[in-house]
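User: Quick sanity check before I run a bigger batch. Here is a single chain. Can you write out its predicted 3D structure?
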Amino acid sequence: MAASVKDLVLIFQLFFPRDLSSARALHANQRREPRQPARTGWFKTVKTLLVRAFSEESNDVAAWTSGLGGDRAEEYAESLCRDLDKLYLLLGLPEGTKFSQSAFDFRRAKPILTTARLNCTFCPPGDSNLVPTLHRRRWDKIQTVWLLDSSFHWVEATLITYTSPPGTHSRWERLEYDPEFLRISKHGIWVHKQIAQTQENALHQFHSGWSNFADWRLFLEHFSRRLLVAHNKDTTFRCEAHPSSRLLAEEVHRTIGINGGVLPSSMSHGCTGCTRVKRYHSDLIGEGAVLGSNTEVANTSGAEAAGDQIQTDLGDLAPLPANLPDSLPQLEAPPVGSLRGYIQMAVMDGKGIKHRQEVGEGSIQAPQGPSLRVQLQALGNTPGGDVIHTFKAKSIYCLQTVQWACGVPIGWGKCYRSESAPQVLRFLNNTWADYPNSRPSFLAYDNACNLLRHIVTQDPSDIWLATTKFIVDAWHYIGHQATDILCRTRCNPAPTDGSQPDLVLTEADDNGQVHQTRAFNTETAEQLNSWLNGFESQLRQMSDVNYDFFIHVLMLIYAETMEKRIQLKEMELTEEFWDRVNGLA
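Assistant: Done. Predicted structure follows.
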């Protein structure tokens, strides 16, 4: 019987099934390593099987049109083994296999690294600004670089670069924001973008440091691009050519935010976890809510006890600031079919993740000339001359974060020496400086009562008093003084007296009794802090530039994670929501 391609395909299907284990890949890789035998035991076994398979046909002289017969099975098997991988690929058999060609199976051609652009991004458009007319560098010698490919193998690659037309001698660098390869060394070391993505996944899923997986330069190159795109700075950013890691970090840091930052996409965020249709006092009455006192918090028994305490300590109540009315004004519900509007809740908190402050130039002066010798006092049983003085570097006090009630981060900043009300107010002003129309309707903060008191006493006309109501989050509210009228009447996270109808919802139990429940989760800041705990040991050892860069990265990753979670839970704002906002439903 004459041999056919069908028979060859059958052999491949028998000995190279689609669900082949990693043994074949391991042997294929072993052959590529230096000083390794050309044939491993696995390949020799395959050759033996091929020899046996062709033995009968090779001895059949009549089966071959050339008339050449004889025992040539060895020759045929050798020829097949020489190009086994290529034949397997040519026949289309590896499609759908667990181990793809790019990862393991076949020896590939040497990669060529070059720009995908058709012109220089710095030079003005024109006939001379096209790749065919650009001057290729190093015509006399091909530039060979090392590339870590997507399968984590080091391979040699060819780098082709171009220069602008003569007369342009300045050298600047503009980042490509969707490159397939990243350069991590001036000395010709490149990596596939999948390596950087794997590093990002390790950072997010396992809280691993950048050094646990790869190089800081890879981390920097990858996230510089991600951050600049997220902050809408990708079209304007540029820096010196071939910058060092520190220079690149400083330039990106200066562009997206020093000692703080804002995620622009978060300013237009909205979902059912942080955004609700505007509610009025009449809505609570219409839903059959049983109103209580202004000290009670919906679903919080601890605050009810505080309300009982107030009834017996009326003489110890702290008065309201003079610039605040005695009670909150109640708006009338608009007519049916009229615009109702919507409200949003943000949550803020401080986290004690610090970094050492850099000492400014000239801040420490060495004494000049002779100095007075001071006799030190004894410290306990230690003579004064033996007392050892220690120095502790200054550090920031805390990391201040603000996010929507659904958990999506908005921005971050730093507090120094203490988490004081003036610093917190400055942080809020910086965060919404470029987004005055995106201020939240409510802001939950563990010390909101003192922050509100500071704003009222310092500037009664502050815009925050007209746009935002400050409340204490539910967890910290039960620990606040019940005798503080401002805290109990203005900062209750879910008052049951109907003074803040936006903060409560009504639900009926199995017996038909209506209860008030909290409308928002005011603890998302604590949840973000819990996630940040895994990075504290890394952040404490960083310089101010690297600390800021790393926090920018963490906020971006956390925001993307929360957005995916919102989509998974189908919490996006629907057309029905906007119909209710506009009074159409």
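The longest helix spans residues 544-568.

User: Great, the batch can go ahead then.
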